[in-house]
Amino acid sequence: MRKKERAIEIIKRLKAEYPDTGCSLDYDQAWKLLVSVRLAAQCTDARVNVVVGHLYKKFPDIRSLAKAPVDEIEEIVRPCGLGKSKAKDISGCMKMLHEQYSDKVPDNMEELLKLPGVGRKSANLIMGDVYGKPAVVTDTHCIRLVNRMGLVDGIKEPKKVEMELWKLIPPEETNDFCHRLVDHGRAVCTARTKPYCDKCCLNDVCKKII
Question: Which listed residue (121, 129, 176, 183) is catalytic?
């Protein structure tokens, strides 16, 4: 089975296994997703969802967060880890949105990548989840699973994995495919325990490179 054929079969089976997929970070505005995805680095989405509630209670919009002292932001986001760098990035990002983008989150990759603390993973998440555009989010689940499945060959660098997946995944499938990889990575193809290959819906098409 060629890589593209395997990819299409994997997409079909993951759709059946996880029909209702989506981002597990809570947000109702684009800028809040930017904040959450920055806090999610080396932190669980569940914890981020709790912490941002405290953050938005004190700073409810881009303007107030842009004008907030960095140390006050850090005090609130500290439970997510790496509080100093995350607070600095969030502050810088909100300042730039407020001063240069009239409190609107850009809808293209080039402009998103200019924002402090926003890399390709964050930018793709915004492109896909907020603006409904094709997007490949190469988080740790995605990188682990596509290597195990044999869709990429021992590539661990996020941007290189992203570029390989663009060749294999139909554009209209990219966003949900990446969310389903997260679902599958949490439930079956786990990182901290041995993967549950015996109950995996992809057992017969996965290369099982573990």
Answer: 121
Q: Which one of 86, 89, 129, 139 is the catalytic residue? A: 139
Report CA 120 to chain centroid distance, whole Å. Answer: 9
Q: Is 176 a catalytic residue?
A: no
Catalytic: 89? no
52 vs 43: CA distance, rounded Å: 13
- Domain limits, CATH 1.10.340.30, in the chain: 30-130
Global pTM value: 0.93
Q: Please tell me the distance from the alpha carbon of residue 137 to that of residue 176, in angstroms, as a whole number.
A: 10
- Exposed/middle/buried for residue 192 (C-beta within 10 Å: 0-12, 13-18, 19+): exposed
Q: What is the pLDDT of residues 17-29, one digit of tens each?
A: 999 999 999 999 9
Q: What token pair was written down for 35?
A: 């904040």
Determine contact, residues 34/93, Cβ cutoff 8 Å: yes
Question: Residues spanned by CATH 1.10.1670.10 within the chain?
Answer: 3-22+136-199
CB atoms within 10 A of CB 109: 15
